[in-house]
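Job type: complex structure
Entries:
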Amino acid sequence: MKLLEDRIRQDGTVLPGNVLKVDNFLNHQVDPQLMNQLGAEFARRFADAGITKILTVESSGIAPAVMTGLHLNVPVIFARKHKSLTLTDHLYTAKVYSYTKQVNNDISIDRRFLSPEDRVLIIDDFLANGQAVQGLLDIAKTAQIEVAGVGVVIEKRFQKGHKMVTDAGIQLEALASIAAFENNTVTFAED
Amino acid sequence: MKLLEDRIRQDGTVLPGNVLKVDNFLNHQVDPQLMNQLGAEFARRFADAGITKILTVESSGIAPAVMTGLHLNVPVIFARKHKSLTLTDHLYTAKVYSYTKQVNNDISIDRRFLSPEDRVLIIDDFLANGQAVQGLLDIAKTAQIEVAGVGVVIEKRFQKGHKMVTDAGIQLEALASIAAFENNTVTFAED
């Protein structure tokens, strides 16, 4: 999506360790008009996928997920992050390791919001190692619901999340796909 | 806002201790169409307030804040919650006590996203004791920016947050204002 690639070139910063900082429009300060355009684009790409619900993880996934839900006219569920859970009878939970924060979290979704008839679309801001997406896939498996697609605003294609999702046979749509970082600039994948 | 009051009557649950559970449309599962309508209503009420930015706190404030930002055409900043912070030179921080979770958190906003010319609107899902809003007011004070308004989806008018905001001379708009809980049902304020 050219609009997004241009915005990343203009406003993104590449930090040491292949970290792309986009906190001025995506994950701390948020540009609502851009989120609306991203949501419309996700909705276009998954228009025929029969989506009934969108899943994301708090907090950075919420803005693009809610805009996608607006355009697909389906509810959005954001999984909650916890240190660790004791009483979990009413929750679906999964373990998620954060590479950036180097901590394990549980994520959870209330059981009453998922039913076997659901076909869900997972939306998140970033796909790198794919830990958050994997956690949502784990929850979907436990809840016996079908994951019809994964949509991410930005993917680092060279990290393992991309392969994990496509190897699972799930439609993956990244609105910007980073092929490499070179000399503190971003190279986008061509296709 | 009648639409929202009807939705609370229909889908909300009153739990012991005056807790209103609205996690099926506001703060776990989210109804994007409703969020869009709430955002449009906040935008209407603050149309003449000269807002340049919206502040909220992760996570439940993000959906209504981003929709309000869409309609007011301004950026949204969501403050991050932390256990406690050590390196904070580049951040504005404030302490926030959560009554529901009974923990102290720091919230923070990167300094480069606020400038003295800003006139901000604070948006959040709930106003009860007003701890989160107070934290954002503290940050605004440190950053020397003017708070032109506070918009909350649901307020419990009988708790101290309402008085705290209005006593500070700040325009407060609650889209649903709960006057009391009686026999596990909600009574809304008349005005």
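Summary: Chain B has five helices and eleven strands. The mean pLDDT of chain B is 95.
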